[in-house]
């Protein structure tokens, strides 16, 4: 309920406009890199001008928050897998998939700043949990790691698909850039899923149990990250 | 005939306000009686101004004491009541904006009456409305305070946005973070100065359970705004740490300001400067701790390797 916060934009708004109120603070433009504070992260300039007053802020907030958390988690999963299997034969493949996830994370970092979305408070937790999942599945062997990849990537691509549906229902034109990004990433995750299958994920020990457990965990993570 | 038209228009007006009210996204849960009250007070104020009851009830209803829809013609039939969408949204705007105007006018009387229904009543009087207008709001003055806080936050956002534009145009230097935070917090707190006597009362009202969601919301969005314009681009847990730290700085400085009797609140600004400096130091200290920790770990690893290789060479011999 953003009652009082909604009053502020209402005061600013011109007469005769009766639109959903958002709590953005006006148009965003380019801004220079911030000086360091507590070891701040320095990022590329975000060159997209996002009109925050037009969009359905709660929905976009959730989408970006959960996607950012997801890519962050995926990063940590691959990091865990590399820690165990980095020197094995699947090392290069995992490394390649990891690099793509790094790019995804970078993109979501930019979007998060552009849309002024708050990151999920559970990030430190996903940091550890992701690494543990990756390392744990890798300790089950290469096939175990691939099974984990398959499970996670399937969850993620289903999740991206439902987001694409949501955005299409909202307004495909307004969210064109975001839709493009999500579609691209969904295709990448699908590709990872297929790579996992190619590398005998299904031959992993207790494959179906493992897969179900991991996907349940992903669903819970998605639920929590959207809200908290 | 006029009485019948009046009665009919009042009935319809009350219902339309109802409908508009149903579409309103959470006002601060006003009781239902004031809906009719606001309809009544509009009629009262219109009668006070001796506006003739026009043949159509809609324009009667839509025309305010200070008409903010100047294109509206006082005479001539308006679209019939069945054109509901546009009519209703106009009413929706009017209701909220009427409240804004009353509350803004009431601020003038706060130093004298405090954050109370009396101040709101006085404010309504200056707008030519009936004193009963205060009945639209809670009796504890919550809405007045929240309105004021929201207004201050908006002013702060505009100020920061203008400053940012100047920097982008190259007409001003970009301030270092600590300076920026200090100036932003000072600018925001200075808006309290006209009401400083009664502000402790306001703070205690804002801490009432039924006000906490709204006041917390206003506080967090203000702090987020300040960090946004300060150039914060963090997307990790730093996002929370920074905002928590700044909220702490803001709240403690506000409390110090309540007690401050120095000329132009010098003590407060000095306190603020020290707190911001502390916060900067925490950041540096955290980095130092981390690098010290890493150095220690590396030292231990080195020692372990040395010892184990010494053991191995001894075993070989």
Describe the protein in words.
The complex is a heterodimer of chains A (228) and B (317). With 228 residues, chain A is mainly alpha-helical. Chain A contains seven helices and no strands. The longest helix of chain A has 29 residues. Chain A starts with a helix and ends with a helix. Chain B is mostly helical and 317 residues long. Among the domains of chain B are: 45 residues, no CATH class; 147 residues, Tetracycline Repressor, domain 2, CATH 1.10.357. Chain B is 70% helix and 0% strand. In chain B, helix 1 crosses helix 2, helix 1 packs across helix 4 and helix 10 packs across helix 11. Chain B starts with a helix and ends with a helix. Classes of the chains: A mainly alpha (228), B mainly alpha (317). Chains A and B meet through helix 1 and helix 3 of A and helix 4, helix 7, helix 10, helix 11 and helix 12 of B.
* First and last CA, distance of chain B: 122 Å
Give the assembly state of these chains. Answer: heterodimer
Question: How widely separated are the two ends of chain A?
Answer: 15 Å
Helical content band of chain A: 55-70%
Strand-and-helix sequence of chain A, N→C? Answer: HHHHHHH
Tell me about the biggest sheet of chain B? none
Query: What letter string, H or E per element, gives the SSE order of chain B?
Result: HHHHHHHHHHHH
Region (Disordered) (chain B): 26-97
Subcellular location (chain B): Mitochondrion
Keywords (chain B): Lipid-binding, Mitochondrion, Transit peptide, Ubiquinone biosynthesis
Biased composition (Polar residues) (chain B): 54-63
């Amino acid at each position: 309920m953003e009652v009082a916060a909604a009053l502020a934009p209402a005061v600013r708004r011109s007469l005769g406009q009766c639109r959903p109120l958002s709590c953005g603070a006006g148009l965003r433009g380019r801004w220079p890199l911030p000086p360091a504070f507590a070891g701040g992260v320095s990022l590329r300039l975000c060159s997209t001008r996002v009109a925050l007053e037009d969009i359905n802020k709660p929905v976009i907030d959730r989408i970006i928050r959960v996607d950012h958390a997801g890519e962050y988690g995926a990063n940590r999963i691959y990091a865990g897998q590399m820690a165990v299997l980095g020197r094995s034969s699947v090392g290069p493949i995992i490394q390649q998939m990891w690099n793509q996830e790094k790019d995804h994370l970078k993109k979501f970092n930019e979007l998060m700043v552009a849309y002024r979305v708050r990151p999920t408070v559970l990030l430190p937790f996903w940091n550890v949990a992701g690494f543990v999942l990756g390392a744990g599945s890798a300790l089950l062997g290469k096939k175990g790691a691939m099974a984990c990849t398959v499970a996670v990537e399937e969850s993620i691509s289903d999740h991206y698909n439902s987001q694409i549906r949501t955005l299409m229902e909202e307004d495909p034109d307004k969210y064109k850039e975001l839709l493009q990004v999500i579609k691209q990433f969904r295709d990448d995750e699908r590709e990872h899923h297929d790579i996992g299958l190619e590398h005998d994920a299904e031959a992993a020990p207790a494959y179906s149990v493992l897969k179900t457990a991991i996907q349940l965990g992903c669903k819970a993570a998605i639920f929590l990250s959207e809200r908290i | 005939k006029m009485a019948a038209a009046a009665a009919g228009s009042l009935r319809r007006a009350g219902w339309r306000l109802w409908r508009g009210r149903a579409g309103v996204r959470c006002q601060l849960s006003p009781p239902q009686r004031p809906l009719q009250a606001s309809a009544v007070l509009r009629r009262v104020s219109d009668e006070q101004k001796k506006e003739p009851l026009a043949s159509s009830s809609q324009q009667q209803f839509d025309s305010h004491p200070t008409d903010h829809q100047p294109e509206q013609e006082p005479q001539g039939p308006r679209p019939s009541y069945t054109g509901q969408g546009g009519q209703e949204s106009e009413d929706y705007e009017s209701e909220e904006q009427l409240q804004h105007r009353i509350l803004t006018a009431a601020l003038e009387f706060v130093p004298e009456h405090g954050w109370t229904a009396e101040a709101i009543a006085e404010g309504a009087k200056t707008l030519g409305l009936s004193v009963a207008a205060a009945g639209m709001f809670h009796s504890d003055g919550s809405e007045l305070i929240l309105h004021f806080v929201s207004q201050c936050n908006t002013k702060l956002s505009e100020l920061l946005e203008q400053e940012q534009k100047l920097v982008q145009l190259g007409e001003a230097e970009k301030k270092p973070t600590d300076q920026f935070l200090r100036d932003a917090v000072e600018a925001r707190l200075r808006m309290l100065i006209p009401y400083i006597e009664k502000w402790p009362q306001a703070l205690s009202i804002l801490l009432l359970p039924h006000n906490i969601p709204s006041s917390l919301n206003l506080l967090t969005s203000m702090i987020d705004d300040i960090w946004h314009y300060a150039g914060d681009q963090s997307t990790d847990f730093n996002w929370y740490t920074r905002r928590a730290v700044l909220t702490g700085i803001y709240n403690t400085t506000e409390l110090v300001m309540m007690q401050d009797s120095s000329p132009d609140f010098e003590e407060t600004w000095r306190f603020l400067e020290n707190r911001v400096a502390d916060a900067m130091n925490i950041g540096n200290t955290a980095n130092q701790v981390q690098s010290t920790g890493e150095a220690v770990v590396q030292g231990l690893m080195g020692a372990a390797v040395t010892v184990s290789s010494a053991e191995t060479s001894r075993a070989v011999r």
